[in-house]
């Protein structure tokens, strides 16, 4: 009976964690998505576009899976923490975090897209 119970518990644990091995790859690809959005933001150099690129980076990363979502959260929160301590406005940081959450939760990044931003972004 104990062996049967142990087998059942093991099966439930393994079944719940069956995708653990994908997490590191998802996290790495999610970090790459965040880096690509940052690079595109710098390349575009478009006024009032930072919220769009925040949302897009988080959206792309989170679509990778739990690892990508985790990477997006860590990178976004870390970035805002560093920039918040540099004297940047609290309101701007809060707006960035709103865009980050919007993208991570599957919201369309185009909500934050500035008018006239080239289509390649």
TrEMBL record:
<feature type="signal peptide">
    <location>
        <begin position="1"/>
        <end position="18"/>
    </location>
</feature>
<keyword id="KW-0345">HDL</keyword>
<comment type="similarity">
    <text>Belongs to the SAA family.</text>
</comment>
<feature type="region of interest" description="Disordered">
    <location>
        <begin position="79"/>
        <end position="121"/>
    </location>
</feature>
<feature type="compositionally biased region" description="Basic and acidic residues">
    <location>
        <begin position="88"/>
        <end position="101"/>
    </location>
</feature>
<keyword id="KW-0011">Acute phase</keyword>
<dbReference type="Pfam" id="PF00277">
    <property type="entry name" value="SAA"/>
</dbReference>
<comment type="function">
    <text>Major acute phase reactant. Apolipoprotein of the HDL complex.</text>
</comment>
<dbReference type="InterPro" id="IPR052464">
    <property type="entry name" value="Synovial_Prolif_Regulator"/>
</dbReference>
<dbReference type="InterPro" id="IPR000096">
    <property type="entry name" value="Serum_amyloid_A"/>
</dbReference>
<dbReference type="GO" id="GO:0006953">
    <property type="term" value="P:acute-phase response"/>
</dbReference>
<dbReference type="GO" id="GO:0034364">
    <property type="term" value="C:high-density lipoprotein particle"/>
</dbReference>
<keyword id="KW-0732">Signal</keyword>
<protein>
    <recommendedName>
        <fullName>Serum amyloid A protein</fullName>
    </recommendedName>
</protein>
């Amino acid at each position: 009976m104990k062996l049967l119970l142990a087998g059942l518990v093991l099966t439930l644990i393994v079944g719940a964690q069956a995708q653990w091995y994908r997490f590191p790859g998802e996290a790495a690809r999610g970090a790459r998505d965040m880096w690509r959005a940052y690079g595109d933001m710098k390349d575009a150099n478009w006024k009032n576009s930072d919220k769009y690129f925040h949302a897009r980076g988080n959206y792309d990363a989170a679509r990778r899976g739990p690892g990508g979502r985790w990477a997006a959260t860590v990178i976004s929160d870390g970035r805002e923490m560093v920039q918040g301590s540099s004297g940047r406005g609290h309101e701007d940081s809060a707006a960035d975090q709103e865009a980050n959450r919007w993208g991570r939760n599957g919201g369309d990044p185009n909500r934050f897209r500035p008018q006239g931003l080239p289509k390649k972004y």
